[in-house]
Amino acid sequence: MTSPLEAKSLSLVREGNAVLDGVSFTVARGEIFALLGGNGAGKSSTLLTFLGFLKPSGGEVLVNGQSVTGDVAAARGAIAYLPEAASLYGHMTAYENLDYFLDLAGKPAGRADLDAALDRVALPAEARTRRLRSYSKGMRQKTAIALALLRETPILLLDEPTSGLDPVAIDEFHDLVKALAGGGQTVLMVTHDVYGACQVADRVGLLRGGKLVGSFSAANGERIDTETVHAAFAERQAA
Amino acid sequence: MFASLAREARFLAKDRGALFWLILAFFLSCAAVSFGIAEVREQRETIAALIEEDAADRANALETQEDWGGAAYYAFHLTYAPPSDFAFAAMGQRDSSPWKHRVRMLALEGQIHEADTRNADFGLVGRFDFAFLAASVAPLLLILLLYDLRASERTARRHDLLVATAGSPFSMWLPRALVRVTALALLLLIPLWIGAAVEGTSMVISVTASGIMIGALLLWWLIVELVSRIDASASVLLTSLIGLWLALAIVMPAVSKAGIEAANPVPDGGEILLLQRETVNDAWDLPKAATMKPFVAEHPELADHAEIEEGFEWKWYYAFQQVGDQTAAPLVSEYRAARIARDRQAGLAALLSPTSLVERAFERLADTDALSMIGYEDRVRRYHAKLRAFYYPLMFLEQPYDADVLKKLPDYDANG
Ligand SMILES: Nc1ncnc2c1ncn2[C@@H]1O[C@H](COP(=O)(O)OP(=O)(O)OP(=O)(O)O)[C@@H](O)[C@H]1O
Ligand SMILES: [Mg+2]
Fold first, then answer.
1. Are A215 and A47 in contact (CB under 8 A)?
2. Residues of B with CB under 8 A from a CB of A
3. For strand A32-37 and strand A203-208, is the pairing parallel, antiparallel, or unpaired?
4. Which residues form the ABC transporter domain (chain A) (predicted)?
5. Domain spans of chain B, in order of start
6. For residue B160, which residues of chain A lie inside 8 Å, CB to CB?
7. Model-level pTM?
8. CATH architecture for the domain at A5-78+154-238
9. What percent of chain A has pLDDT over 70?
């Protein structure tokens, strides 16, 4: 069976600088893969390559077994993308934002569905008819996550999804992502939050110097050991 | 496609910045159309009032006359070019060329060129009419509506999410821009259509004018689209686009106008007036044959009646008036040809400026272009020739004066 997401010896150059250098990984259906790395490690760039915004300078990325460069629209259609510091429209309410983006995706949803998704991310009902301009950072992030949920795509690409969320919201979000993966959605999330990654992911990859330098999996239902990963992360950072 | 247009229309309805420019466009269009209608109404009222005075004044002047020469001397005849039913949208050359005269049997060219032009000084940009709005202001509004479509989303870090969600950039930016261009075009055109209905403009002209404006907006859209492909900040894009607009809408037309005028010197109307007046004045002191010879050359049918015996005879007087026109004729035709040449070259130069192209097209539709104004002057000449043809046999064949005959004086036909 083809994997929903696959990077094959992916290399990437941005403005003359090598960002990724021969990165390979696959994410299986229903799996949560967390790509961990420091600032500027190339995490966001990896996601942008899966979305067809950046062209590999070597190797290729596949979505559902198909090269992204071959059919960008098909890849994008299969993916819900939560950008780093997602910013929706400040002059529109949560409902209006969701309506707009879902229309844009060609997948409009009714008010009940919107409310169900906003309930799942625990955005207060009172806030939903307010403009996003008046939201806190975390509330905005929750709205963006609700949008990703509502897309109901087979694949989720999440860039620093918990940034701005409070600890309770982070826990809830981790439960949410696990539930989604349990339902068959494939999740690739990039973060520098070691603890969070170990909490939620089935597998953690460590990205450094443009290379995948480590991989950690949870053994038989256990969590990935945060200490081990953190040690590796810190060691690599120092090196 | 319809769904995405509806989506972007709803989006536009919430975008205050864009709404501001669109509402401004609507108000400017309403203003331009109503100024235009007020202006053509005033011109029509002026003409109507003059028509009324014209007959009465002439009847009054003729009452006390005792010979043909006196009648011809004192009877003025109104000539005019009424504004067309589309002139409200493009006043064009009506602002700088005369559209009404009161002529009499005297030498004509001077009368044409001394006429009171309401030479309004509209400066560099010209009158604020719909043609100006459509040609010059609309592109600017379009630039303001479109220039930062992408750049603003990039700045807000929303660009990738939008495009990733839409699947292809095409299904995102095309409808968004199209909705804005359509809204702008409609808000500009609706007042024009109302004006056209009020003025009774023909459907063909309304549709053609709308098509021209839409075509120009599409061209500017293409320009904005190409420029905003440049990976630059919104302010750089805006600066470049405003620069292009200045070049195409203001500088290019001004430079080509100056160039064309320098390349085609036009003797001004004053020179014609002067030359003719000198000829006429000199004739008093010249031997009568010096006048009658060139006159008879033009009117061989009057050769047998061209003998002037007394010191003053009306037929001699009118002959030297006509010779005045004959003397001025080369200068007149030079003037006319130069204006036509200027106009033709301006037409070619307009190919470099969408603004000039639109303005010229509107003036053509409105019959307010240079050729229409020259056409009016030619109509005055034809009418004046009819007056001469009417009076000459009466004077030269020395028919007894009969006031009733003057009831058959030719009428000016504004469409003739
Ligand atoms: N728009 C851009 N143009 C050119 N180079 C860029 C651009 N964005 C990022 N880069 C470069 O690409 C490299 C990887 O950046 P990327 O954003 O993928 O890192 P990241 O792992 O997501 O970092 P962070 O944790 O800070 O989000 C960096 O060296 C960065 O300088
Ligand atoms: Mg990043």
1. no
2. 3-4, 7, 10-11, 14-16, 156-158, 160-168, 172
3. parallel
4. 5-234
5. 1-416
6. 48, 51, 53, 81, 83
7. 0.89
8. 3-Layer(aba) Sandwich (3.40)
9. 97
